[in-house]
Amino acid sequence: MSNVIPFSRKPKAGIPDGIPTGIPGTIDGSTARRLKALSRGGFADVVRPLGWIAFLLLLWLRLPLRFFLMLTATCGWVALPLVCFGLPAGDPRKTVLALAAAGIGFSSFAIAYLYDAMLERVAP
After folding, report:
1. Residue 3's pLDDT band (boundaries 50, 70, 90)?
2. CA triple 115-68-64, angle to 5 deg
3. Cα separation of 45 and 41, whole Å?
4. Which of 36, 52, 64, 116 has a CA 20 to 30 Å removed from the CA of 9?
5. Does residue 13 sit in helix, strand or coil?
6. What does the pLDDT read at residue 117?
7. What confidence tens digit (pLDDT) does each residue in 94-123 have?
8. Which three-class secondary structure state does DSSP give residue 12?
9. Model confidence band, residue 68 (pLDDT cutoffs 50, 70, 90)
């Protein structure tokens, strides 16, 4: 046992030793450790089922939401060449309709992609 070197323990961060624990508003070290361990475990036990419920609800909504988003994206992309080639060049509505069709198509596709990315991120 001659090889053992005694090390003194450093004081833990938190309440200094000089503060009495009987004063209201102060918590001694053991109580603080117990509360911290309880809050860590208890919070995870409450949040995990709520996360599962939210994920399953979002996953359940994925099919109808993606169906309607892809339907509007397809309509937007189909309407774009119809507007560009179907309307005469001098029609003042041509630019607005072409931009609206492209915007609807792109935004619907982007929302569907971002919804899937969000589901992958939230997945437990």
Report:
1. confident
2. 70
3. 6
4. 36
5. coil
6. 93
7. 989 999 999 999 999 999 999 999 999 888
8. coil
9. very high
pLDDT tens for 21-55 read: 555 555 556 666 766 766 666 666 777 788 889 89
CB of 72 within 8 A of CB of 108? Answer: yes
The three state secondary structure string of 57-84 is HHHHHHHHHHHHHHHHHHHHHHHHHHHH
CA 99 to chain centroid: 31
Instruction: Return the ∠ at Cα 95 (arms to 104 and 100), rounded to 5°.
Output: 10
Q: Is residue 89's pLDDT more than 70? A: yes
C-alpha distance from residue 89 to each of 22, 85, 95, 107 (Å) = 86, 9, 10, 26
Hey, CA dihedral for 86, 92, 94, 97, is it positive or negative? negative
**Helical axes 29-86 vs 93-122, angle rounded to 10°:** 150
The CA-CA-CA angle for residues 77, 113, 102, to 5°, reads 25
Q: How many CB atoms lie within 10 A of CB 83?
A: 20
